[in-house]
Amino acid sequence: MRSLLILTTFSLVLALGLFSSTTKAEIFTSNLTVGSRGVEVSALQQILVSEGYLVMPTGVSYGYFGPLTKSAVAMWQSANGVLPTLGYFGPISRATLSAKTSVKNPEPPTQPTMPVEPPSTPVSDLSSGISANSDTPFALGMRANRILFFRASPLEVKPGDIVTLDGSGFSKTSNKVYFSGGNAVVATSTNGTVMNVVVPPGLSNGEHELTVENVLGSSANPDLKIIIRVTDNPQPPPQITSASISGDTVTLIGTGFTSSNNLSTTFGDNPSSILSNGTTLTFRITDLSMYEKIKQFTQGKYQTSLWIYIYNEHGASREPYQLNVNI
Amino acid sequence: MTKKKFLALIVAQTFFWLFAPLTPVRAQVSPVPGFGGLMNFDIACTCPANIGNLWVWHTPLFLTVSPSPLTGPLAWSPFYTIHYPMFSFGVPGAYDLGAYLPGVQACWMLIPTIPPSCLPLINAGLMTQDGTSLSI
Fold it and tell me: Which residues span the domain enclosing B118?
């Protein structure tokens, strides 16, 4: 009977241990993204590791939400039907995890999971075990040990405004951002790919080329000059807040549309006519430059995402809008 | 095994399954999901110029994270993607098989804003490794 007692006790302990593992979703109350720290991050990482989405690099401790965790969250979101799959652990992700573990989450999903960082930002990921320990992390798929500078947004600013820079190889500790070769401002980046900088007071109105310098060198590129426009009355870039498709016609609702809008999409650009009345913009999906090229392969049998940017004289939308379409 | 021990084992098993929560059986999955598909065409990423990254449209596109075939692009980078034989990457009509990082954007395009700027050309993710079906 001693064996019976020992085995029964062992089984109960094991079963209760398994049951307790399902209560992890209860502890998530915060939005978690790159840069987050603490026990919630540790708990999330443990779940991701246990489910096979994350492999913690040797020597890296739990508790910091880095690019590797972001990628793992994106994979978890893909596998669990959470959209968008951007690696941002927000209310929808919490609710999904909660539902998955049959535990009631105290905070209902009241708004879409939106990333703090732009979804399009290239992030150091598997290489974060190497590059994240570096002072100048590089974006995955980009040349290492070189500073690259892709865009500054918004385009139109006034002194004191914050400009967000996207690139690769930004320093975690010290970058000098130059405005037209002068007015140097020191800035830092947490992940090497995104960095905020304040437009210096007293910067004159007009266009200014931005360059970034750090231990890797300078971002100066004769083929691409990254410009901001300083003005007393800066206008925000266009932004898409919703979109729909009916037949061939795509309708975008948003702000900042002008009479000279252009599109950049995953089906190409340059529709022959874009109609806009300021807050609504319409175009025909069949007019996009790669539509027919894609359609010849898909024959109308597939669903995919049409990602849409809009740009005009006030700059380009920072975030793409995702519209699911059949093609 | 004695009769007592056998009985103990049966009772223990019964207790275990009575108290253990029901969990779905899950297949072992790689930390990096896989993909496979037929390459249709590719576009050279232009920001920065001549970087060599490609944006490759696949139809059909099979992703291990998706239950049904899709159509869409993935990104390939000479600085990150491990390229195995066959080496005909980007050749239309070649099947492509590998693994990728969902959501990692590695294809930026120069767009004719005034002044010019770059925007990400969105894709399903960055290939970590790939090989194709053609040897040409």
Answer: 34-132
Total domains present in chain B: 1
pTM summary value: 0.67
CATH 1.10.101.10 is held by the domain A19-100: yes
CATH 2.60.40.10 location in chain A = 128-230, 239-326
Of A4, A143, A227, the CB nearest to B79: A143
- Domain assignment present for B82: yes
Pairs of CB atoms within 8 A across A/B:
202
Residue B29 belongs to a domain = no
CA-derived radius of gyration, chain A: 24
The secondary structure of A277-306 as a DSSP string is -SSEEEEEGGGSTTHHHHHHHHTT--EEEE
CA B86 distance to own-chain centroid: 18
A121, closest residue in chain B (CA to CA) = B105
Q: Where do you find CATH 1.10.101.10 in chain A?
A: 19-100
Strands B82-84 and B125-132: parallel
Whether the predicted interface score ipTM is above 0.85: no
Which of B81, B61, B85 is CA-nearest to residue B73? B61
The Cα–Cα gap between A18 and B19 comes to: 9
| Interchain pair B79, A141: CB under 8 A | yes
* A311 contacts chain B (CB < 8 A): yes
CATH topology of domain A128-230: Immunoglobulin-like (2.60.40)
B6: in domain = no
Per-residue pLDDT of chain A (327 residues; tens, 9 = 90+): 555 444 444 444 433 333 333 334 446 778 888 888 877 887 788 788 777 788 776 666 677 888 888 888 888 887 887 777 778 888 778 777 776 653 333 333 322 222 222 333 333 233 332 344 588 999 999 988 899 999 999 999 999 999 999 999 999 999 999 999 999 999 999 999 999 999 999 999 999 999 999 999 999 998 899 999 999 999 999 999 999 999 999 999 999 999 889 999 999 997 777 888 889 999 999 999 999 999 999 999 998 999 999 999 999 999 999 999 999
Q: Do A7 and B101 touch (CB under 8 A)?
A: no
- CB contact (8 A) between residue A264 and residue B111: yes
Chain A residue nearest residue B105, CA to CA: A122
Distance CA A235, CA A245 (A): 28
Residues in chain B within 8 Å Cβ distance of A22: 21
The bridge status of strand A249-255 relative to strand A280-284 is antiparallel
Q: Do residue B31 and residue A75 have CB atoms under 8 angstroms apart?
A: yes
Q: Cβ A224–B110 below 8 Å, yes or no? A: yes
